[in-house]
Amino acid sequence: MWTLPNILTMSRIFVIPVLVASFFMDQPLGSHVAFATFALAAITDFFDGYLARATGSVSKIGVFLDPIADKLMVAAVIVMVVFAGWVDGLHVIAAVIIMCRELLVSGLREFLAGAQVSVPVTMLAKWKTTVQMFALGALVWSEGAPEFGLPAHEIGIGLLWMAAILTLYTGIDYLRAGLKHMV
């Protein structure tokens, strides 16, 4: 159970309080802490699966926890960037689209697991996740990156919309695949 991939997965859950707390710190320090924490967590998202497959240590707990850790981290960051006002106005729609898709796919996967049906992750869904991680990483750095002359907020908003579009497409894709098993 306590394999390196599982520890990396669990670390994404354990850093959520640090991410949330960073939004209550003085800025731009809090933004730097949020960015560093989120970036490390996003890197573990890549390495936990890679290491599990490479070492043949894919486990049931890892398969169970990995998507939960991802969704908890993404949800926490989305809530906090909206709370902080770094995503506001019409841009909140993109955040809501991403949150709704995450819930839809989670529910669909749970239903299909009960029917003993597996829905594989598509390459486009992996790209969606990558764009989403870059978007959220840029957004949590909204207050810190300008110190370095970087337009993180603008990049984050653009990537958030790109992720929302990919989210809609892949969510519909998953729903279509799942509906075949619901009727």
Explain what this protein looks like in three dimensions.
- This protein has helices at 4-14, 16-22, 29-55, 60-83, 91-114, 123-140, 152-179.
- The chain has 183 residues and is an all-alpha fold.
- Helix 4 (60-83) runs antiparallel to helix 5 and helix 5 (91-114) packs parallel to helix 7 (152-179).
- The chain is globular, with a radius of gyration of 17 Å.
Largest sheet: none
Low-pLDDT stretches are none
Here the CATH topology equals Four Helix Bundle (Hemerythrin (Met), subunit A)
Distance between the termini: 37 Å
Q: What is the typical, i.e. mean, pLDDT?
A: 92
Number of H/I helices:
7
CATH superfamily: CDP-alcohol phosphotransferase transmembrane (TM) domain
How would you sum up the global shape?
globular
- The SSE order reads HHHHHHH
What is the beta-strand fraction?
under 5%
Rg: 17 Å
Instruction: Give the CATH architecture.
Output: Up-down Bundle
What is the helix content?
Answer: over 70%
Count of DSSP E strands?
0
Please indicate the count of domains. Answer: 1
Structural class: mainly alpha
CATH class: Mainly Alpha
Pfam family, one: CDP-OH_P_transf
Enzyme class: transferase
EC number: 2.7.8.5
Catalytic activity: a CDP-1,2-diacyl-sn-glycerol + sn-glycerol 3-phosphate = a 1,2-diacyl-sn-glycero-3-phospho-(1'-sn-glycero-3'-phosphate) + CMP + H(+)
